[in-house]
């Protein structure tokens, strides 16, 4: 089992560009969670998805951020028109129902 | 929603001493409390967890205690070693209610030789 796979590990975007972060959950896990970690801070919940459904997006900023978990393929966190404040580590976690396994994260830098 | 507070934010101990990190939570419905260790630039890794039907759990040098009445839980690391140096996060969850983890703000533990 390869664990939770996130790519890319590092992503640099200029202000105004789009960022796409991908997460493939562990085999057999149907629940995906996205968290954001700002430098030297804790992890903040963003969104919880199951296949083809957004279950809880209470932590997502209202604008520019969206997430999906299609029937086939990885979960995608999409950030449009990135700003410097979006620079952070974005972690995905998957779960079979309880208990999380985190991916290695994508470190987004907006220049 | 749930709010988790964690103290201290930094903790420095001598190798071989014990370290204690404390967390409080606000939602009495929370029933699952994991602890994560995060080394610099790496993913958070689950080191121990406890469910609300248990008051204490131990795994080698690591133990966690839970006081449901007071709504606080603690991580205890005995015989600390330099490789224990990392940031530790507590978290709380209501299982079956979306399984969303609410994290504390983290404790930077430094074990000095």
Structural overview:
The complex is a heterodimer of chains A (111) and B (113). Chain A is mainly beta and 111 residues long. Chain A has strands spanning 5-7, 10-13, 19-24, 31-37, 43-50, 53-56, 65-68, 75-79, 88-95, 101-102, 106-110. In chain A, strands 2, 4, 5, 6, 9, 10 and 11 form a seven-stranded mixed sheet that branches. A four-stranded antiparallel sheet of chain A has the order 1-3-8-7, with no helix packed on it. The mean pLDDT of chain A is 93. Chain B is 0% helix and 54% strand. Chain B has strands at 4-7, 10-14, 19-25, 32-38, 45-51, 56-59, 62-67, 72-77, 86-92, 102-103, 107-112. In chain B, the strands form two sheets. In chain B, strands 2, 4, 5, 9, 10 and 11 form a six-stranded mixed sheet that branches. Chain B has a five-stranded antiparallel sheet with strand order 1-3-8-7-6, with no helix packed on it.
Summarize the structure.
With 111 residues, chain A is an all-beta fold.
Secondary-structure blueprint:
The complex is a heterodimer of chains A (111) and B (113).
Chain A lengths: L4 E3 L2 E4 L5 E6 L6 E7 L5 E8 L2 E4 L8 E4 L6 E5 L8 E8 L5 E2 L3 E5 L1
Parallel strand pairs in A: 2-11
Antiparallel strand pairs in A: 1-3, 3-8, 4-5, 4-9, 5-6, 7-8, 9-10, 9-11
Chain B lengths: L3 E4 L2 E5 L4 E7 L6 E7 L6 E7 L4 E4 L2 E6 L4 E6 L8 E7 L9 E2 L3 E6 L1
Parallel strand pairs in B: 2-11
Antiparallel strand pairs in B: 1-3, 3-8, 4-5, 4-9, 6-7, 7-8, 9-10, 9-11
How much of the polypeptide of chain B forms β-strand, as a percent range?
A: over 45%
SS class of chain A? mainly beta
Measured between the Cα atoms of the first and last residue of chain A, the distance is: 36 Å
Poorly predicted regions of chain A are none
Our count of helices of chain B gives 0
């Amino acid at each position: 089992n390869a664990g939770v796979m996130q790519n890319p590990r590092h992503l640099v975007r200029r202000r105004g560009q789009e960022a796409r972060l991908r997460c493939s959950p562990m085999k057999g896990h149907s629940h995906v969670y996205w968290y954001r970690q700002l430098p030297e801070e804790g992890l903040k919940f963003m969104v919880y998805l199951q296949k083809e459904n957004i279950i809880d997006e209470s932590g997502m900023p209202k604008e520019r951020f969206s997430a999906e978990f299609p029937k086939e393929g990885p979960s995608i966190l999409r950030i449009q028109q990135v700003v410097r404040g979006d620079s952070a580590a974005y972690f995905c976690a998957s779960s079979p129902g309880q208990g999380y396994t985190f991916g290695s994260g994508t470190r987004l830098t907006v220049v | 929603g749930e709010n988790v507070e964690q103290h201290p934010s930094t903790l420095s101990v001598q190798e071989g001493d014990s370290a204690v990190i404390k967390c409080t939570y606000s939602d009495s419905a929370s029933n699952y409390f994991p602890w994560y260790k995060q080394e610099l630039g790496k993913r958070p890794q689950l080191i121990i967890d406890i469910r609300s039907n248990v008051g204490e759990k131990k795994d080698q040098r690591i133990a966690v205690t839970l006081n449901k009445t007071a709504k606080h839980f603690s991580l205890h690391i005995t015989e600390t070693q330099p490789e224990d140096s990392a940031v530790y996060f507590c978290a709380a969850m209501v299982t079956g209610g979306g399984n969303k983890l609410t994290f504390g703000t983290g404790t930077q533990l430094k074990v000095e030789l």
